[in-house]
Amino acid sequence: MLASKLMAARALVLLGCGWIARRHAAAARRLGIPLLAASRDLARARAFAREFGAADAFGAYEDAVRDPRAAGAIVCTPHDRHLRDALTALEAGLHVLVEKPIAPRLAEVDRMVGVADAAGRILMVAENFRFMPAFRHVHRLIASGRLGELRELHLVARGYRRPGGWRLDVGASGGGVLIDAGIHHVHNLRWWGGEPRRVFALAPPRTVALGGEDAVDLLAELPGGVVGFLSNSLGARGLPRVQWSTVTGTAGTSLADNRGRWVLLRGERGTRLSLFFRDTRGHLALLRAFDEAMRTGRAPEADGAAGRRDLAVVLAAYRSLAERRPVDVEC
Q1: 100, 127 contact by CB (below 8 A)
Q2: What confidence score (pLDDT) does residue 240 get?
């Protein structure tokens, strides 16, 4: 414990000790980054700290972010708390890695980004899809021209699952499947295909209790006439968790496993299968990027502006659902 009290200010404070916090804690332990665990339930924070070897545990976020050992915070709380908890960390002088979505409203994102900029602190979104080796490989295929001129992107993640807890409250979640897991695929749609100009979204009848929609089908108009399609569902009974992404160009198609294990390329130059075995979900690379951004002060790839653009697409889709018409995406 003495060593933990004398630790240089490099530790990351985990705000929230739920499921996603466990992913970040496991990555931090592998990278040798010290942790401080914080929960509004002190007993839960202590149990989490014991399990993951955190240097200390706190029952109040305000106390944790003011610990002299802390350099940054990872916000792992429900969506409606992201702004409040990110500001708590930023106002204490910490850099912030906030879980996706960055916030449920654009005005909240703007405030968060403004405070981070004024404080000279890093604000990054925990968009692990950006750092998955398989998805970075797809991006390289597109950027290198191996697929030719882009034509279509199809991103499909469908299965059956019953969420619980705060996700059943639309006030806490800000929506349903699209603003939660679906925003990962929105990010890839933007990253691979460019910024959507207009979206049209439909949702089937609900089969799973959720604060918002349990499934959504989204059609997006991308730059250059490219068409994007996203299908995301937690209410597809009878299906395994089928998750795949295809990017089709004039010279070929890439088919990626959304769990990050392989990418198949077929085109004018034949067929090639690329396999990925390390950090397939990108959590190590994500945390490494955040740690480097804190040390160097350089803006990370998945910064607050990128998180805002992801959210803008989601909110345009929700408006399309409500109004049953195509909607332009707010810049």
Answers
A1: yes
A2: 75
